[in-house]
Amino acid sequence: xxxxxxxxxxxxxxxxxxxxxxxxxxxxxxxxxxxxxxxxxxxxxxxxxxxxxxxxxxxxxxxxxxxxxxxxxxxxxxxxxxxxxxxxxxxxxxxxxxxxxxxxxxxxxxxxxxxxxxxxxxxxxxxxxxxxx
Length: 133
Fold this sequence. Notes:
The protein is mainly β. The protein folds into 2 domains: about 10-70 and about 85-95, Roll (SH3 type barrels); about 100-133. About 0% of the residues lie in helices and about 40% in strands. It is built from no helices and 12 strands. The strands form 4 sheets. The protein has a 5-stranded antiparallel sheet with strand order 8-3-2-1-9, with no helix packed on it.
């Protein structure tokens, strides 16, 4: 009888808000953008997702509807139309772009003299950012 192996939880993602990334796969492959936020997976075993500004846009068609607030006597109309909303991209489909050498790169770790660990570019070896700075 085989035992079911629980999926391993991933460690904290190495791509953070404010990083510039390039999309590796999908309809926006090859495009660059800035990460707005990193979303945690809803279920165990699913990947982290990153929301990249201007990429992976979904269109939502909305009707004009009355919007009531508790302190309003007359309802305000919510505008209808087509709204473009950026959706999350799985973190495995994006790669960090080094701000110094401008190449998509894998992330290495360096330990500074102070003992702090920082993310570093795999090509040029320069620190991408210093934690807490």
